[in-house]
Write a structure and sequence with these properties.
Blueprint: H1 7-32, E1 37-43, E2 65-73, E3 76-82, E4 93-95, H2 104-115, E5 120-122, H3 136-145, H4 148-151, E6 154-156, H5 158-166, H6 170-190, H7 203-216, E7 220-221, E8 226-230, E9 249-254, E10 256-258, E11 261-262, E12 265-270, H8 281-300, H9 307-320, E13 325-327, E14 330-331, E15 365-377, E16 383-395, E17 402-403, E18 412-413
């Protein structure tokens, strides 16, 4: 029976890691990104995408106007919450505010003047939605209350936002494995005779099973799961909302959120015909092609390379080896489609991605290694099989990717 940690335990684990990140990781990242001060400002129910990753778990939303200030002071970061009486469990110094006599923007200006930072990062960006959480109204109010000297120091916080959201510490990486193994156990049940009766069960039935299992655990899918099939004689590709039949190749795309981390997994399996007890060799051969392409992508992952460089290097090597490949890998973590380097897009096969594709790869970051190969199957009268895979991985060493879920090297059978 699957179990998840109690809400209290989840909150405690989240807060423990958050404090570690604020104490040890944030100073490193602000130094790396040459950020003297970072201000995150948002209002209740219109939170900045980065806000909930910066506050304790029980802070489910901003409170009225919530403003966090981070000031790099040597090897430490001074952390302030401006004019908010919420209890942040000692993680922030709360700057008091008298709503009857004081304006919070005036308090913010006085704090900035006292600390006198070299520069000030605000969350606005044309190309990165995670760093574009500051609304125009709040920016205008900020600008109205600040001096010209302060406004001259303002720049886009895109780099520090991305760095904060994408970087995982050791404890988070260990927790991420448990989150992915939970997702794996749900997929394994979905791809079994517990759920699938060939000739009766539909792909939609399996989608609802996935969603119901996640709901029973008190968790959520961060996107609606999809199930489709490929079968001989249907060369159009993936078929959805269909009865699952013997001989089908079934595919899922499934992701959950648990303890502040997201998973994203695609798996395929074979529905055996009567009397079949092993995977047909041609299917395993096709699967091996995708496994090889995954290894090619891993080898291209070197710190400092951009997403576009990894994309082009991977596609060039696949072409040399005669692999018909498609690569569309994305960062993952706090969000499903997360901050960091984009490595190809599904709807622009093989094309560099402006903006996020130019962002470099850093260590201790995580990705949904999402890709497919198309393999001609003689046993299917020359039709192509799409062998799709997506695995949550961590980049910690050059030329390697660390799989955060037990990686299947064989084609699975529904049984």
């Amino acid at each position: 029976m699957r179990e998840v940690a109690s809400l209290k335990t989840q909150a405690q684990l989240f807060d423990q890691v958050l404090e570690q990140r604020l104490d040890a990781l944030l100073p490193q990242l602000m130094k790396r990104e040459k950020t003297s001060m970072w201000i995150v400002m948002n209002r209740e129910y219109n939170e900045d995408p980065v806000y909930l990753s910066l506050v304790p778990r029980m802070c489910r939303n901003a409170r009225r106007l919530s403003t966090l200030v981070f000031y790099l002071d040597g090897d430490k970061v001074q952390r302030y919450c401006i004019g908010n009486d919420r209890d942040f469990d000692g993680m922030y110094t709360v700057v008091p505010w008298d709503p009857m006599t004081q304006d919070r923007f005036e308090i913010l200006r006085e704090t900035i003047e006292r600390l006198n930072p070299e520069n000030i990062a605000l969350d606005y960006s044309l190309t990165n939605q995670f760093a574009d959480g500051l609304t125009k109204a709040l920016y205008d109010e900020f600008a109205r209350h600040m001096s010209p000297e302060i406004m001259a120091k303002v720049f886009s916080g895109e780099r520090i936002v991305t760095a904060w959201l994408e970087t995982r510490n050791r404890n988070e990486l260990a927790r991420y494995r448990a989150v992915n193994e939970l997702a794996k156990s749900i997929i394994e049940d979905a791809f079994s005779r517990k759920v699938i009766t060939p000739g009766v069960t539909t792909t939609t039935d399996v989608e609802w099973f996935l969603m119901e299992e996640v709901s029973k655990l008190g968790l959520v899918c961060w996107f609606t799961p999809t199930i489709d099939v490929q079968r001989r004689g249907c060369p159009g590709g993936r078929i959805s909302d269909e009865i699952i039949l013997p001989g089908d190749v079934i595919h899922c795309d499934f992701g959950i959120q648990y303890m502040g981390l997201s998973t994203d997994t695609q798996r395929i399996a074979y529905v055996p015909r009567e009397g079949e007890t092993e995977i047909p060799p041609y299917l395993q051969k096709a699967y091996d092609t995708t496994l090889r392409f995954m290894d090619i992508v891993a080898d291209q992952c070197v710190e400092g390379r951009t997403g576009n460089e990894i994309l082009l290097g991977s596609m060039e090597q696949a072409q040399k080896e005669g692999i018909k490949a498609h690569l569309y890998t994305h960062p993952i973590g706090v969000h499903g489609h997360a901050a960091g380097p984009t490595i190809g897009l599904y709807y622009r096969p093989g094309c560099p991605v402006p903006g996020t594709g130019d962002y470099p790869l850093y260590r201790n970051t995580c990705y949904a290694l999402e890709l497919n190969t198309k393999v001609c199957i003689p046993e299917w009268d020359g039709e192509e099989l799409w062998v799709m895979r997506e695995e949550t991985v961590a980049f910690t060493k050059d030329h390697q990717l660390d799989y955060l879920m037990t990686e299947p090297r064989t084609f699975k059978m529904v049984k």
